[in-house]
Specification:
- This is VacJ.
- There is one protein chain.
- The chain has 3 helices and 5 strands, in the order ββαβααββ.
- The protein has about 110 residues and is α+β, with helices and mostly antiparallel strands.
- The chain has one domain (about 10-30, about 35-100).
- The strands form 2 sheets. Strands 3-2-4 form a 3-stranded antiparallel sheet.
Length: about 110
C-alpha cells in the first residue's frame, strides 16, 4: 500500500437542515428542482481548537449562508431577509475534521479566485 499523506489543514463542512430545504420548496413552489445533498466545505487551520473553529464560523457565517443560498437560487431577492447567526444554526449543521487525507499527492493543488 502506498504511503498516505495529509494536508496541513482541517476541514469544515456545513450541511443544510430541513428548514433550508423547506425554503427551496417555497421559492420553487410547483416546479421540480434538483436538490442535491450539497454542502459547503472549507479548509481551515489544523491547529485550531473547537472554540477557534466556532469563532471562525461565527465571523464568517454570512458568507457561507449566502454561498449555500446562491447555490440554489441566484436571485438574492428570494433569500431570507434577516440571515442571523441564530437562523444559520437553525438551517445548517457543521462538522469539523482535523485530518485531511490527500489521495492525489502527485497532483499539484491549484488555487483559483472565486
Amino acid at each position: 500500500m502506498a504511503k498516505r499523506k495529509t494536508l496541513n489543514r482541517a476541514l469544515l463542512i456545513v450541511t443544510p437542515k430541513q428548514p433550508f430545504y423547506d425554503w427551496v420548496d417555497e421559492v420553487f413552489a410547483g416546479r421540480e428542482v434538483d436538490v442535491m445533498d450539497e454542502c459547503w466545505t472549507g479548509l481551515i487551520d489544523q491547529d485550531w481548537e473547537i472554540k477557534e473553529v466556532e469563532r471562525f464560523l461565527k465571523a464568517n457565517y454570512a458568507m457561507i449562508f449566502e454561498d449555500l443560498l446562491e447555490g440554489m437560487c441566484s436571485f438574492p431577492e428570494f433569500w431570507p431577509e434577516h440571515r442571523s447567526w441564530i437562523l444559520f444554526n437553525q438551517w445548517f449543521d457543521w462538522h469539523y475534521s482535523s485530518m485531511v487525507w490527500d489521495f492525489l499527492p502527485d497532483k499539484r493543488i491549484r488555487r483559483e479566485a472565486y
